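ok so dumb question maybe but i'm new to this and my supervisor (M.) told me to 'just get the structure for Aspartate aminotransferase' and walked off. so i did the thing. is this what she meant?? sequence i used:
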Amino acid sequence: RFEGVTMAPPDPILGVSEAFRADTNDLKLNLGVGAYRTEELQPYVLNVVKKAEKLMLERGENKEYLPIEGLAAFNKVTAELLFGADNSVIQEGRVATIQGLSGTGSLRLAAAFIHRYFPDAKALISSPTWGNHKNIFNDARVPWSEYRYYDPRTVGLDFDGMVADIKAAPDGSFVLLHGCAHNPTGIDPTPEQWEKIADVIQEKNHIPFFDVAYQGFASGSLDADAYSVRLFVRRGFELLVAQSYSKNLGLYAERIGAINVVCSSSDAGTRVKSQLKRLARPMYSNPPVHGARIVANVVGDPNLFNEWKQEMELMAGRIKNVRQRLYENLSEKDKSGKDWSFVLKQIGMFSYTGLHKAQSDHMTDKWHIYMTKDGRISLAGLSLSKCEYLADAIIDSFHN
Ligand code: PMP
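this is what came out, is it supposed to look like this??
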C-alpha cells in the first residue's frame, strides 16, 4: 500500500537548516531560515515574552479549549495593532478577525476561504516571493500566476512590470502583497508607488491580500510598517491581511497569528467570520492558547507594550548594523568596481544578493555558508564579527 509513496523533496528553506546541522566545520554560518539571533548567534527569547509568561503562570490559567475563532483578547489587540485602534474599520466593527496558526496557517485559511467563495478567482503573487505562498495556494486549489517584482539589472523593484501584470490579470483577482520587508528581496515600494498600486487594483476590481509577517521588525516601528495596509484601508478597499508574531515577538514555535478580513459592513464581517470558523473547525478545530495569551498580555499592557517596542528596535537595529557592516566590507574588499549599495537599500531581515544558484552552492560548498538557492541571505543570522568572512565569501562566489 505505502510502497508506492515516493520521496518528497526537502523544503528549500527548512532543508537548509538540516544541511547546516550536518556540517561539522567551525566556520559554518546559517543564513537560510529567517530567525533572529543575538550578536553571539544564539536564539533570543524577548524579555517581554518571559514577563508575560511569568504573569500567566502566576495567574494559574487553565488549558481549556479556546473557541474556534481563538482568544477574544488576542483577536481584539491584533486587529488594533495592525489597523490602529482608532481606525474606522475597527470602530465600525467591519473587520472579521480570527486567530490562526501563525502566518502560514492564517494564509492557508484565507486561501481556503477564497477557494470556497471565489472558486473562479485567481491569486497573483510576486516573482519572486516567499516559497511557501505557492504551496499554500496549490494545496488550497487556488490558481495563481506571478507578477513581475524584482529587476535583476537594478537589484530593485520592477515597478512598471508589476503594474502591467496586475493590470493584465483577470478582474477580481486576489493580489498578494507583502505589507513590508518583502521576502526574499527586501525591496518595498515607496509610498508613491503604493498609491499607484492601489490605483490599478481599484481599477481592476482586484482584492488586496496582504501578508504581514514583519510588522515592527522591518523599520523598528509598528506604525511605519503598517503603512501599506492602512493606506489601502483608508482608500476604502475590502481586503485580507494575514499576520504573524513569529518574528516581531520571536514566537516562532508558538504558531500565533491571525487572519483579518476588512468588509464593507459589520454584518458582512459577522458572516465572513462565521465562514472562517466553519473552515477552521474541520481543519484543526481551534487554535493553541499559549502564544495568544502572550500577545494579549504584551500588547494589552502599556508597560509591556513599550518594552516590546524597545526590544523590537534593538532587534531591527542590530540587523541594520550588520547590513551596514556587510556593505562596507563588500565595498572595501571588492576590487571589481561593483556597486553594492543595493545591500543598504533593502530592508528587513533579508538581503537578496543576486547570487544565482551555482554561486549559492559555491557559498555552501567552499565557505560553509548556508543560504537559500535564490541568493537570499538572512542578516538576522549574521553577527558583526562574521561580516568580513561573509563578504570574502560573496565576492569569491560572484567572481567564481
Ligand atoms: N509570510 C512571509 C513573507 C514570511 O516570510 C513568513 C515567515 N518566514 C511567513 C509568512 C509565515 O511565518 P509563520 O508561519 O512562522 O508565521
